[in-house]
Amino acid sequence: MIYKINAVLKSPLMIGGKTLDSNYRESKDYIPGSVLRAAYAKAIIQRCAFEQKNYYLEYKGQVQCKNCGFRNICKNFSKITFPFLYPLGGKPYPVTAREKKYKDKEDMEIFDILKCRLITLGKADGETGWERLEGINKDGKKVKLMHSAVTRTAIDYKRNTAKEGSLYTQNVILEQYMNKYDELEDIVFTGEIELLPEEKKELDKINILRIGADITRGFGKCNMSFENSNDITIDTAEKIKQRINEFNLGIKYNKHFVIVDLLTDAYLGLEEIGGNNISQTEIPDIEMMKFLEKKIDLPSGIYTLCKVYKFQEFIRGFDTSKTTEKEMRRNGHLVVKAGAVFIYEAMPEEIEWAKLLEFEQKGIGKNTEHGFGKVRICDMFHIDYDVLRGKNNG
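Given the sequence above, the corresponding structure tokens read:
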């Protein structure tokens, strides 16, 4: 059963994000599924009668487990897909979203240039006065979070002293935001999770969860809840067909454009091509397309990848379950950022809508069990804000 998961932020949040300088780090504006999983794993382990090494949750299958209030969630924990949580239930703007560079509060037009690019292969009227629209949106309107800079001193725990030259600053998300009425309101991060009723009942017992970094300093306190929500809309093959057909209206072309929108970051293995050239600026488009076609895995006999709009980020990290610093350091990965748009061509009569739905439900790339690689076939944003229709959110 699919439930809506809510995390109401009650203290500043720090989710490891961009290091903009050697001593300055900015939090992400969302909670990745991997971070949510780790937070729940730690909360369950703290309630476990057995020692769990390196905070890795493992079902022991002992006599005590039969009477444990978390036996079902513990047993199935690795099989559960934990979603990305976005503020106010929003989603990232696609890379093709634009807004005017110079605007006031009454002039909030937004545009999507995707269809214009595919039809005219050029810029839309007035596009020189626009800029890319980034961030999280809810029904087209930008979700604006409040941040605060917190400066701390790093500690040398071997000597129990401050590290020399070790001041660092974290730009954290505050627990409230300014709503459209200019009133302060609690931030709620939401997502959708599939659970068995008994699993949901057990997770309901953890109503306070610490998420993200620096939780021992008071960061990341969230009130958690699950609910059956009428807001949850289940996609269907028929809905996908309607969106694709509507997007292709007016396009004089014997093939249909099938749009794949990336709703969360994706591990597509881009670091495997281009050698040490992390920027990949010298990789030919044809080579990149062939590589992505294999990774995204739509049937090549039906769908041909013809264009990609994407940004990527090189991410390093640590595996804190390891014992030495050398073991902890993970290999770097190129991550395709949420908002990427992949455009395929296909003959209309060859499109199998049910299989497109299966593809959407499966996701793309690695770590889909942590919410990465979630996709939507032709998000309505491309239709609602198509610049050629002149529709806007005003």
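The radius of gyration is 23 Å. Try to locate this feature in the token string yourself.
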